[in-house]
Specification:
- The complex is a heterodimer of chains A (472) and B (198).
- With 472 residues, chain A is an alpha/beta fold.
- Chain A is 34% helix and 17% strand.
- In chain A, α13 packs across α15.
- The mean pLDDT of chain A is 97.
- In chain B, strands 4-3-2-1-5-6-7 form a 7-stranded mixed sheet.
- Chain B has one domain: Aconitase, domain 4.
- Chain B is built from 8 helices and 7 strands.
- Helix content of chain B is 33%, strand content 16%.
- Chain B starts with 7 loop residues before the first strand and ends with a helix.
- Chain B has 198 residues and is an alpha/beta fold.
- In chain B, β2, α3 and β3 form a beta-alpha-beta unit.
- Classes of the chains: A alpha/beta (472), B alpha/beta (198).
Chain lengths: 472, 198
């Protein structure tokens, strides 16, 4: 019987079984940032421990970094302190730090892949739940807590329970204006926000195979929003070609050997899965959230739930979510006025996200009622976008073009909603208060849907606003 | 390193109702601006407990009759969202010692286990009954027996479940795995070499 990718990568990296029944697993790549990792260095210090494999850990700063000015010291004293503590800890332990203005700083899940640090067959971890992003390359990529960051720093290993693997086949062809973001929002809507608990998701099928690496990263990124511990896509030609020439990837004959090894991790044709779900591409339309979890989503043509249609605790959840969002039961989502438009984040802050939007908004104007910001995911994305003069297109349309960081995805920097502002957002979470105001409201959607909403001043169908018809 | 084994937890309960309570609600992102976890207790569920001007919203956690509760009860998919260990740290520093829910998000569950906070799974029916008991008698003690997988409350026994590896680790005092992980230095070195990461 063949093996799936999860089993192959697991088998490669398992060291031994622990007394608790968990397994000790070697981590090929460890990424750290300023919010969840400085405390781990303190824990090491308290125990008199050192970093075991400093060459397998890489650091960046993303969550707290301002996107208007990054002059030091940062205006927010605590943000400055977090940045300093990370800088000092990485220097002390010989860990490479992609500091601001180094040319390589950015959101941790944008930086790893674009440098080629993320490679098929790896076990990857980071103190951040969106580490699942790296699964797009055929890796087991796990979000971990700070005590586990400590474990990895000290031992380069984690104590883990093995996961089940669910194969999600997305078959068919996406329509025009239907994007990778809509695919994953649709999957979460169908399987639920806790549907993936205990599982790794393998995304496959013709729709996934046709995606670029950046689109695949968008899909894997939100695995955690579906409750899955991680999600992955089998490495193929698209993966190999993306990695060719990347800064931290071998060249020449060494690359060819690496590529052959990478391909070997793909699930075997006769691999077994714990279960399988089939999703028809025809069922996927531009999808937006209406509530306060990523699973509370509908397509742009639908109406928010009627209270008569839900029962018990679910009725409380729907009622609370609608009240929080200030939406009426059974109202159409299309036409909901918005105050803010945000394009960026580890979900949709890569070059192709900005390229696609730039093509559509060139010559158009953001509604006067909307504050619109575009935040590149990394200094590299910013550099490449500027080389293509995408920033000028965005600015001419009325977007602010900002410096790289997590920004308004979780608003740990100054980019926040104010009061009960409502934001059309390309990020990954619409939780209560997520975008920095305890009463702020978030509607998740694809970058082109955010662009459509920004232009119209209300939630709109990008296919209509930009005259997109037929198949992609 | 993990110190004592954890086989029983007893104390008053408090019920925070709702499915899908995410870690942004447990501890909003602005409180993550810290370089240690020491001060997080008072910020637990901050925006649910306080208005923007800092006035109490009379949240159940602040109800005088629930002061000093040791056991937090909630519903399905508790702790979903961000991996922030700040969430279980805030729970622990607030004084809570165990969480009972219908189900748990996995990263949160792992973080709780490492910190020595048992995550106990109870059925909808049992959680409803437990919450009723503590509503009527806030002083009622919930006695969680990890060995037996049961809770005794108001002379009634509730069968519960736990992730087996976590349960084993609490009983064997290995819930903080670091010492055990560090015991395999040679095997780790061999793996690093075999995989080409040495």
């Amino acid at each position: 019987m063949g093996k799936n990718l999860y089993q192959k990568v697991w088998d490669d990296h398992v060291i031994r079984k622990l007394d608790s029944g968990q397994y000790q697993v070697f981590m090929a790549l460890h990424l750290i940032h300023e919010v969840t990792s400085p405390q781990a260095f303190g824990m090491l210090r308290d125990k008199g421990l050192n970093v075991a494999y400093p060459n397998r850990t890489f650091a960046t700063v993303d969550h707290i970094i301002p996107t208007d000015t990054q002059a030091r010291p940062l205006a927010d004293e605590m943000a400055e302190k977090m940045l300093q503590v990370l800088g000092e800890a990485t220097a002390e332990h010989g860990i490479e730090f992609f500091a601001p203005q180094s040319g390589a700083q950015g959101i941790v899940h944008v930086v790893g892949p674009e440098l080629g640090l993320t490679q098929p067959g790896m076990t990857i971890c980071c103190g951040d739940s969106h580490t699942a992003t790296h699964g797009a390359f055929g890796t087991i990529a796990l979000g971990i807590g700070t005590s586990q960051v400590r474990d990895v720093l000290a031992s380069q290993t984690l104590a883990m329970d093995p996961l089940k693997v669910r194969r999600i086949r997305v078959e068919g062809k996406l329509g025009q204006g239907v994007t990778a973001k809509d695919v994953i929002l649709h999957i979460i809507r169908v399987l639920g926000v806790n549907g993936g608990v205990g599982h790794a998701y393998e995304y496959s099928g013709s729709v996934i195979e046709a995606m670029s690496m950046e689109e695949r990263m968008t899909v894997c990124n939100m695995s955690i929003e579906g409750g899955a511990r991680c999600g992955y896509i089998n490495p193929d030609d698209v993966t190999i070609e993306f990695l060719r020439g990347k800064e931290r990837v071998p060249t020449g004959a060494e690359f060819d050997a690496a590529a052959e090894k990478w391909r070997s991790y793909a699930s075997d044709p006769d691999a077994e899965f714990d279960d399988e779900v089939l999703i028809d591409a025809d069922d996927i339309k531009p999808t937006v959230t209406w509530g306060v979890t990523p699973g509370q989503a509908i397509n742009i043509e639908e109406r928010v739930p009627k209270l008569e249609d839900v029962e018990g605790l679910e009725k409380n959840l729907v009622t609370d979510a609608l009240n929080y969002m200030k939406l009426q039961p059974d109202q159409g989502i299309k036409g909901t006025p918005i105050d803010v438009a945000f394009i960026g984040s580890c979900t949709n802050g890569r070059l192709s996200d900005f390229q696609r939007v730039a093509e559509l908004i060139a010559g158009r104007k953001v509604s006067d009622a909307v504050r619109a910001i575009a935040v590149p995911g990394s200094e590299k994305v910013d550099r490449e976008a500027r080389a293509l003069r995408l920033n000028e297109i965005f600015e001419a349309a009325g977007f602010e073009w900002r410096m790289p960081g997590c920004s308004m995805c979780l608003a740990m920097n100054p980019d926040k909603l104010v009061g009960d502002e409502i934001c059309a957002s390309s990020s990954n979470r619409n939780f209560i208060g997520r975008q920095g105001s305890p009463t702020g409201r978030t509607i998740l959607m694809s970058p082109i849907m955010v662009a459509a909403a920004a232009i119209e001043g209300k939630v709109s169908d990008a296919r209509e606003v930009f005259s997109l018809k037929g198949e992609e | 390193m993990a110190g004592e084994s954890i086989s029983r937890i007893s104390g008053k309960g408090v019920y925070v109702q709702g499915n899908d309570i995410d870690t942004d609600r447990i501890i909003p992102a602005r409180f993550l601006k810290c370089v240690t976890f020491d001060e997080l207790g008072p910020s637990l569920f901050h925006d649910e407990r306080f208005t923007e001007s800092g006035e109490s919203k009379n949240h159940v956690l602040d109800a005088p009759q629930h002061r000093g509760a040791a056991v937090l009860i909630s519903d399905d998919n508790f702790g979903c969202g961000s991996s922030r260990e700040h969430a279980p740290q805030a729970i622990q520093k607030f004084g809570l010692k165990a969480v009972i829910a219908g189900s748990f998000a996995e990263i949160f569950h792992g973080n709780c286990t490492t910190l020595g906070i048992p995550c106990v799974i109870a059925s909808d029916e049992d959680r409803k009954e437990l919450s009723k008991i503590i509503e009527n008698d806030p002083e009622a003690s919930l006695d969680i027996d990890i060995e037996k997988r049961e809770i005794v409350c108001a002379n009634k026994v509730f069968q519960v479940s736990m992730k087996e590896s976590a349960r084993e680790a609490f009983l064997a005092a290995t819930f903080d795995p670091l010492d055990e992980l560090l015991g395999a230095t040679e095997e780790i070195k061999a793996a690093a070499e075999r995989l080409g990461y040495a």
